[in-house]
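Example record

One chain of 332 residues, shown exactly as stored in the release files.
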Amino acid sequence: MQTVLVTGGAGYVGSHACLALAQAGFRPVVFDDLSNGHREHVQWGPLEVGDIRDATRLDAVFAAHGPVAVLHFAARIEVGESVKNPGAFFDVNVGGTITLIEAARRAGVNALVFSSTCATFGEPVRMPMDEAHPQVPLNPYGRGKLMVEQALADYDRYVGFRSTVLRYFNAAGADPEGRIGEWHEPETHAIPLALQVALGQRSHFTIFGEDYDTPDGTAVRDYVHVLDLADAHVSALKRLLAGATSTAFNLGSGEGTSVRQLVDGVGRAAGAPLKVEVAPRRTGDAPMLVADNGRARAELGWTPSRDLDAILSSAWRWHRDQALLREEKLPR
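Predicted structure tokens for this chain:
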């Protein structure tokens, strides 16, 4: 059984990737500082607590476990916070990644799958968005991810360190068996926020803007099930281990869902419509972001298999069950 080091493996996408790795016959070793991740989500291999900026700690973990590759998810992810404190984001997301790459190279590891984002593209100039779309990020979060992409290209060009960049659109959903799901504190993502309304934890869901040039006037996004993303990571890993060259892939369903359609879908999953309020557009929100996933289909053999209803029903079950568990733990 080959070992894979999974940085940020206690987080949302990382923990689902660990599940997919275990199902594919790999042994995931999670490296996480637990600042955003959760110890409870580390279920398919050992947990090593540490910071990706700590070279000494990384060297010890590489030596102890002998991984054949790295899946790199560890990062700060709050876009709004990146605007308020860009230095902290560059320190972790860029500086920490370089420290990780150098530790991997010292350990003789030559394959890394990088968790990137469609935020590297910025304002769309064509739709759907393929890998050749111009990359002009709008915030330090997206810019930091792009800086890592560029660094990885140089590592390949000059020292032969191979990588695969996976640019997510909107990760969503949960493990259908309820073992892990989307858990952010504080919560800022659309689907969990809508589910909190359905659970009575919020009074309403806010739609920011209904005057976009889209079919129903609300913004359109591309939602892809987190387990489909996890499958793509396993495919990318196997491809690198087989000797493939470095490249980048856009990961999305290839279909757009408007905010109104999303709200209606959450209502179907929860069994009751949501209370909605409309607010003005937010600065920086694009009218539409949809992936062209043709390269991933052709070169990774990856096809997202779970539709919006599957995404929302799995997310609803996870959040409902978590709410019930919290109620059971409350003093009577």
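Notes: The mean pLDDT is 95.
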